[in-house]
Amino acid sequence: MKEIVFATNNMHKLQEVRSILGDRVTLLSLQDIGCDVDIPETGRTLQENAGIKSKYVFERYRMNCFADDSGLEVEALGGEPGVYSARYSGSRDMAKNIQHLLEKLDGQTNRMACFKTVISLILDGREYLFEGKIEGRIIHEKIGDKGFGYDPIFVPDGYSKTFAEMDPEEKNAISHRAIAVANLTDFLFTL
Prior knowledge:
- The protein has helices spanning 11-21, 46-61, 94-104, 168-174, 176-188; strands at 3-6, 26-28, 65-74, 112-123, 126-138, 154-156.
- It is an alpha/beta fold and 191 residues long.
- Strand 4 (112-123) and strand 5 (126-138) form a beta hairpin.
- The chain starts with a strand and ends with a helix.
């Protein structure tokens, strides 16, 4: 397989996945295939949302594709924000989402969390699922200016800095998305 669509309009995600895949495959974006629709994420789980997006592209463009959905799950909040990570505060403003999360964790001593990514691959009309997960903790204030989303408040286990303090290469070697993409590429290159 030389070409595959990544069903996203998120340029941060696209760059991250392109750097993980390298030159092993040509990764096309929604923009590259002329899809300017913001595909709604109406699922109740990361798996459902990823599937909605990949199936939308395959059904309309008949191209092999994959889509992901990622979420931050905080133990003390019963897994919140989870599938609602991108709109946790009621808006898509990540600064507001981070602030809302930090306010909900105020006074909590258990700050354990994990990032999860689920990828839905549609290959010749059949769906395959891949997951990546990284454990860590939520710190009390934002640190770092790299990355995106909740990266400035998430420190992965075994590290002393946030995702937002890491160079992209360092983050891409250990992130939830990197793990899920590695599982996807292992599958693709064994076909």
